[in-house]
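Can't attach files on this board, so I'm pasting raw text. These are the components:
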Amino acid sequence: MENSTFIESCYQNIEKYEGIINSFITLRDKKEVLAELASLRSSTSPLVGLPYVMKDAYVSKGLQTTAASNVLKGFIPPYDATVLSKLKKAGAILLGKMNMDAWGHGASTENTDFGVTHNPWDPSRVAGGSSGGPAAALACGFARFAIGEDTGGSIRNPSAWNNTTGLKVTYGRVSRYGAIAYASSFDTVGPMARTAKDCALILREIAGVDPLDATSASEPVPDYVKLLDRDLSSLTIGLPAETYGEGLNLEINNAIQTAVKQFQKLGFKTRKVSLPISELALAAYYLIAPSETSSNLARYDGIRYSQTRDLFTTETMRRIMTGTYALSSGYYDAYYRKAQKVRTLLIEKYEEALSDCDVLLMPVNPGMPPKLGQLLNDPVENMLADIYTTSVNQVGVPSLALPAGFSKSGLPIGMQLVGKKFSEDLLLALGHQYQEVTDWHTRTPNL
Amino acid sequence: MLMKTTSKLNSKEVAYLARLAALSLSPAQLRDLETQLVSTLDYVRAVQKAPTENIPETTQVTGLHNIWREDVVDKTRMFSQEQALQNAKTTHDGYFLVPAILE
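---
Top answer:
Structure tokens for the assembled complex are below.
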């Protein structure tokens, strides 16, 4: 399909369904977008002319950037995030900036000041979060791909609940320059799309060291696309027994067991491994991430930019105050420092689990997307939605979330492949080979 | 500094935390947040049971140390005064206007 025709079809879908879904915070004018397409010089990049959307967590020169918070409403950044500069250079066309939980604080895209995003598979349910806008937009055909951000599951959770594919990269694999910080030692920038192959195409463009982000990794960037079809038959997939126990929805468990059989049919070995961490990982995450966010969000004082702090949502205020508590004199050792020691334990547990196998196959979400309002202002329920995802960020390893089937009621089910640091090539190849023999990822919601 | 360790947060401590975090909250907001903070802290307190004797802390996972750059100005990345001020609510003669701290 011609790129201009494709962009026209995206805008047609937006016109038809955005009223139900509410995935955009800022939608660019179609004429302006088509003019940008017409002005592109010929390029060798496979992304040239492809329409994409971006979580509103990245600064974009001259285009409103809010992090879905009224605190940043009307903020017009004077520079571009590195991920945006790279995609501009590759000739990809940005259609808009997407809804999310404000500052990344949430797993439902309900903690937003721009109206909740609805799940395209059942609009009475949440789209997941915090990158709920991008995932819902992909499911509705509003764009070819998206850029999300994952601090504790924010790419993987909505990917699983929208039947899309999303990659949480190794910490440092993609530059964070220009990403609005939530928890700086966990934040990662990653691709979201319909397929693992598309994620590979995007990652090849956006990965790599950046002098503007001192934490970006100098490891060479492999050709993720070329490596998709390589022979992986000697590979062993580990199944962490603890993640398939109590607390996991039965239909999700069954769908993943079917996927396990599919992987075995493809010739991969599978084995049970142990990863006894869930509750501890979640507790450590909900101390370290709020601590980092209380510091990161201290900059929003309404002087150089931003509105005043009384405009933070209750969810965000609670996270700031939890962090302030954990970092305060008298409590620092018992909470923040202790959580950082637990983080070391988590790294050791992952190393042990990944010494018995090459990748781990785990659930993404413990349950189906909740009904709207169910998670709001219930801090513990809210935290439990992240039980299988936050440890990955604390350890810093990559994880690919991809479709694994549907519930009886027609809701999408996802799973995640977790690898060693900088094993994105392996995860994408494994995901791609699975998607070659399954068709879950091709299904679209009936809106 | 916070008051001595107590098992539960009280409203005075919540108000003090809000002040530390530069959040001005109404009495109703403070009450809501107190309930939510208590249940959050009850959950995250699980870390305290973990055996961490002789376990070092992890603050970051890059393995990188001291990433330097040349100490030179890159003029292509400099903001004009106009750009620097474009998002400020209150400015005066090309400067940011800030709230007074001293009387």
